[in-house]
Design a protein that fits this description.
About 20% of the residues lie in helices and about 35% in strands. By secondary structure, it is of the alpha+beta class. Among the domains are: about 130 residues, 2-Layer Sandwich (Gyrase A, domain 2), CATH 3.30.1360; about 80 residues, Aminomethyltransferase beta-barrel domains (Elongation Factor Tu (Ef-tu), domain 3), CATH 2.40.30.110. The protein is globular.
Length: about 350
Amino acid sequence: MQTLLRTPLYERHVALGARMVPFAGWEMPVQYEGVIPEHRAVREDCGIFDVSHMGELEVEGPKAREHLQSLLSNNLDKVEVGGAQYTLLTNEAGGIVDDLIVYRLEECRYLLVINASNQETDFEWIRDREIRGSDTRDASDRYALLAVQGPRSLERLGLDDAPTFTWAMGEIDGIECMVNRTGYTGEKGVELMVMEEDATALWDAAVARGVTPAGLGARDTLRLEVCYPLHGNDIGPETDAISAALGWTCALDKDFTGVEKLRKVKAEGPARKLVAFVMTESGIPRQGMQIAEGGEVTSGSHSPMLDKGIGMGYFDSAHTAPGTNVTIDLRGRERRAEIVKKPIYNPEVE
């Protein structure tokens, strides 16, 4: 039986009465008071997530940029020191080994924040393809990562606003941390990277400022409302970026692993596309449910903000236009849904 890992904040979660569950080899809080109140706290005020299970890789050296540029789908040349970029690590077939955020720390030094379940895979993939003048290190054990998300997040933390996908060093109640203007909820917010030994103090400081603890359950419903893909559900090594509607992360005019396959899919058009839908009849869609018109659900849940079943899935391209009605098999019950434009819920207009 696998021994689950624990973040530096495990005792805090237990003390708050969190329901702990296995996730990507870690024992993580799925909820405290409940998914719906935690979800609403993030949409209406702000919440804090312990995402210290995420992996961190450091790549540095005079050839670090060249090395990463050959492996990552997006154009790293657009990222200056102090900037960040969402990008994909792709395989030879154009499949998505992982989706990640790369931060440019210094002229020849980068930080990659990767999915917990892919930590070892990503590290070996990047290290095994190293070129002379580039060095890759797994720094995951050194850091903790706390995501504070919501319209009042910066106000609660006493931080000045900054453009999204930028970072700067800062302090919160005397605790030094890397303040990243990134997140996975669609709301204004930051992801705070801190030395592992300072994680508890930073968590306590944020909670004392009125930030609501939130678990993985709310994190999942929040990201689904704004149609952020989840690796292992919506994207993976067998799915390509064009079919997954992530072509905007691919600089097809440069060379990187799998680019020829992606250029071909782009030119010919994908047979299936990852699209969003809202249930027009009662029922909650779940991963793996079949679509009568062709395809399957990859993510599904109840939307706390819309009070409806929502989801994403790969549909045959002929049935992917917004407004198209489709039928989903909810455990033997056929229920109607409608394809909608992403995001399903837009925090900026709702």
